[in-house]
Amino acid sequence: MLSAPILLSLVVPVFNEATAIEPFLVRAGAAIEAACRRVGPGTLYEIVFVDDGSTDATLRVLSAARQRNTAIDIVGLSRNFGKDAALAAGLRHARGHAVIPIDVDLQDPPEIIVDMVSHWLAGALIVNGVRSHRRADSPLKRLTAWGFYELYNRFADQVIPSNVGDFRLIDRRIVDILNTLPERSRFTKGLFSWVGFRQAEVSFVREQRQQGMTKWRYWHLWNFALDGLTGSTTAPLRIWTYIGLTVAGLAFLYGLFLVGLTAFAGNSVPGYPSLMVAILFFGGLNLISIGIMGEYVGRIAAEVRGRPLYLVRDINGELLRPIDQDT
Ligand code: UDP
Ligand code: MG
After folding, report:
1. 12: which residues sit within 8 A by CB, 6+ positions away?
2. What ipTM does the predicted assembly reach?
3. What residue intervals traverse the membrane (predicted)?
4. Pocket, ligand 1, Cβ cutoff 6 A
5. Domain range enclosing 28
6. pLDDT means per 10 residues in the chain (327 residues)?
């Protein structure tokens, strides 16, 4: 029998969301209670709000909610650090056996948490929320998102699914792994595909934002994309080695051709052959050495990230589950 009750955690980053919190609590509260019933009697939940440096009444609304419901925890950050950092803070604070990051604006429907929990009980360590379509997004957003995933999946070592956001269920085991990773500029989506393990999917329709407005701007998305690519692959560095080799090779051939031409047909423009050969040769040499340096910088980047070499899923087929550890 289980000695400690099972705990489910919601992690909710909030940044200037005073009007969104009450509607969220109504729907998410009902959903998480249903999820607790699904797990079994005695199951508890907590809702960890991470106040990402809000300047409006968010904190006051949260404190009032906590007065009514002690399952609510509030982690206040010292300023606005961005959603990813807020999520990292929430993941560290959450104590649940399963942790579910969710947006406060109800774009992630809380009702599917019950299905996520079912998959989790069936043995999945990560249950991804998959958007079944992006009709709520503008055509430009859809196009840029599509382009990003195409590019990313072509270069990165682990493929990421294209319609998965931050809304997912994460088993305690994975949360502990994520909490110990030392890397600073995290690309969470990439991390979740990197950890592997048995994953399941629940699809949902992403709704329109209920209150307030989105805090993402294209400039942020662009930086986000850059972080994602450079955090997960050294392909942009490595490419220069090949470009350099190709250019140097072509330059060498062209140089031979010019030397031959000069030797047999004479020199029509004095100085041109030697100049051209020198420029091409050194251009190629430069690119090759940049490429070599890129190789080393790429290795440094991988070392600095300090990820474990591997993660063990099971021993003798026995998956170690946090729930089992409590027994
Ligand atoms: N958020 C945050 N810090 C930020 C920006 C956003 O904690 O700097 C929170 C926000 O309150 C919301 C979630 O992250 O709960 C998603 O934000 P938003 O709806 O603006 O993003 P979108 O849905 O457009 O991707
Ligand atoms: Mg939103």
Report:
1. 24, 28, 47, 48, 49, 50, 90, 101, 102, 103, 104
2. 0.93
3. 239-263, 275-297
4. 13-15, 17, 52, 80, 82-83, 86, 103-105, 107, 209, 214-216
5. 7-142+162-215
6. 78 92 92 90 92 90 90 91 88 93 90 93 88 75 81 78 84 88 72 80 76 69 78 76 82 83 79 79 82 84 79 70 49
